[in-house]
Design goal:
7 helices; alpha/beta; five-stranded mixed sheet; single chain
Length: 233
Amino acid sequence: MGSNLLYVFIDESGNHSKGDYYAVAGSWCLSRRTDPAEVLSPTKDRLIAHLDQPHSELKGSKLSNEALNELVPAISSYGYEDTTVSHTTVPWTTQEPLRCTLHEVNPELATSVIADTTGAELQAPELLQTLALASVLNPIFNPDRIDRSAFTEIKVILDDTTWSRPMERIKQGIDLLTSERIPSDLQFNIRDSTKTPGVQVADLTAYSWARHLRKGDCGSAADAIHGLRFSEY
């Protein structure tokens, strides 16, 4: 294990092409582990141990409101005890080992506006997903919010191949930019969520936040998520 790596685990809740809600969450941490499958594994195991029934992975859509209100607030406290993440050296102003970013939108409204503006009706859902990804990654491109001396590279870990095209669009967009705000050590990887605890944490975050917006429940989970957000994101 060498220098710290900045990990951003990404997952979504809802459908980016239809319905009345769509949320994307980014779960952030520093780790010296180079294998994303190891990062946040102790936190995932402790969260699963809370559940009455055995689960092989954390999946927000399969959990009750009560379970989400218990698990999500525990993420932060378990992060302090997780040996796979950094607790003392963090690139943000507060000392929490874990942070999060969120993006939510009404997909039917957003895709109709994109299609009307661009004329690219078939590509509108993909463009919406790409913009959502850009939104949750925004702190990376703001050196006033992220101290780059705290890590050597950035790994953005996305769940499943649904992110393949948005990922490529973001990478192409970055290549076209000429700015000191664009880090050269930024890597994107698609991983299986069942083998990537950080993506499962992002899943809990995205689903709980979306459910709170839709149904008004998951209040304790939403409060805990809000406490982990970057102030501007």
